[in-house]
Amino acid sequence: MRKYLLLIFFFSLLPNFSFAQVEGSLVLTPEVINEEAAPREMLEYALKFKNDSDRKINIYPILEDLKKETGVDRNNLQKRQYLLTEWISIQRNSISIDSGAEISLPLEIDISYDAIPGDYYASIIFGIGSNIVEARESITKLNPPRLLLNIKVDDQSIEKGAVLKYYPSKKIFTEKNPTLFLILIILEMLT
């Protein structure tokens, strides 16, 4: 009976010690990405992780938008137009890194064709744990590797105008009866 109690006590302490060995032992490069991009542009990166701990580590990428208040009314917009996390492609399931190993993880940011020009901020936190729940908890208990993204979307729209018709309102011009000239212009916005 005492053996069982001792085993139960020992296993109940394991979750409390599971993060202690890996804190600060996972190195991510780069830590910050600052880019300027245009709508429809694809940005590609290779994130490098180095495990300096003495055991295998499982990480889970957790994306979050860091919102900046703007004057844009987002009620009529779709998420792909104003959320940076909607443009990010990264492996979302468990990523295992052996002790002393170094891996490369591809990251793609595909700027939406109808993205609103401006600054976009997001972070990718690489929570450490054997499952996603434990990885989310590790964010508050540890300081896991974090990638900060700052993407500035430039306004690439081209406005073009053309005169379709230009004519006077009267055919006879005199000093006493001024004539108005009417103009019909068509405007196009190209992106």
Describe the structure.
This protein has 191 residues and is mostly beta strands. It has two domains: 18-155, Sandwich (Immunoglobulin-like); 159-190, no CATH class. It is built from two helices and eleven strands. The protein has helices at residues 2-17, 132-141; strands at residues 26-29, 32-37, 42-51, 57-65, 88-89, 95-97, 102-110, 118-128, 146-153, 158-168, 181-190. The strands form three sheets. Strands 2-9-8-4-6 form a five-stranded mixed sheet. It starts with a helix and ends with a strand. The model is unreliable at 13-22 (pLDDT under 50).
Tell me briefly what this model is:
This protein has 191 residues and is mainly β.
* Poorly predicted ranges: 13-22
Radius of gyration: 28 Å
* Gap between N and C termini: 74 Å
Overall helicity = 10-25%
CATH topology descriptor of the largest domain: Immunoglobulin-like
Hey, roughly how much beta strand do the residues contain? 35-45%
User: What is the number of helices?
Assistant: 2
Label this structure with key terms.
5-stranded mixed beta sheet, 191 residues, mainly beta, Immunoglobulin-like
Topology:
Elements: H1 2-17, E1 26-29, E2 32-37, E3 42-51, E4 57-65, E5 88-89, E6 95-97, E7 102-110, E8 118-128, H2 132-141, E9 146-153, E10 158-168, E11 181-190
Parallel strand pairs: 2-9
Antiparallel strand pairs: 1-3, 3-7, 4-6, 4-8, 5-7, 8-9, 10-11
